[in-house]
Amino acid sequence: MASSSTMRAAVMHAPGGPEVLKILSRPIPVPQDGQVLIRVKAFGLNRSEMFTRQGHSPGIQFPRILGIEAVGVVASAPGSESRFPKDSIVATAMGGMGRVYDGGYSEYTCVPASQVQVLPAPLTIPWSTFGALPEMMQTAYGSLSRTLRLQKGDRLLIRGGTTSVGLAAAAIAKSMGAKVAATTRRKDREELLHEYGAEEVLIDDGKIASQIQGHGGTVEKFDKVLELVGTSTLKDSLKLVKEGGICCVTGIVGGKWEFDAGDNPMELIPLGVYLSVYGGGPDEFMSTPLAEFVKGVEKGEMKIKVGRTFKLEEVAEAHRCMEANEAGGKIVVLVD
Question: What pTM did the predictor assign?
Fold first, then answer.
């Protein structure tokens, strides 16, 4: 830490490659009424931050400290001390962090009190594990509960199963009593998916629907499909949904944002199949039962895949790792 009034932060002054993330000294934010100043212990990396760094977030003003989530302890909370006692364990996510105002890539972050969850003390899991949870669990839980309306006994397919959100979704869905299937492009990832709750693993060649048809139609379609790869596999995923079922697009790890020119939704979406999306904000984060997930991890009832950890000064390398899909799980940066 530089001094009592300054902090280290990963600051970017313009879009570009990972090298635009520079560790600089910045004044520690001064919280106002209704805000919480958090001393950051860890934060997870998210692909949306990579997209922002690359210049895909219109309207962002520079310089900017990225980071849509963080975990740590309360440094101060003017006017809300009873709700946020000093040194209490907290997590925050979304609400403009890292885009509208400075986010979690720093030793301190200042956020609205309305998007801060207080966790019971003492923290029973490592900061590296806790740092992986806020946005990942909010996204997985919100996709399953709000958009897909997952019920016990539902057959769920997770397209992009080895992503951090995919693995979290498998663990949550299994705990909800769903029958989980997941895809991977690599056969050597089958054991990993089984470990995290998938009963069935499909090797993804981009044409899972053809694989099912190749079994003479004896393979049952799915009640719900969580699409994490994006438009490059969505057309195929829609063919895998039962009539009356739902397909939810939550991720774009395939890197393709749009359908091909000339694609007709009347032809792409099967009769009686529902297509929706999930994108959570502060309200969705606050409704995520984070404390319950921490308990589940502590008891060994829920597995969380932390792929790699980095130090704050290594955040550019962490972005390179994320961009190259080399982590094999959630990337977490430890701040102290």
Answer: 0.92
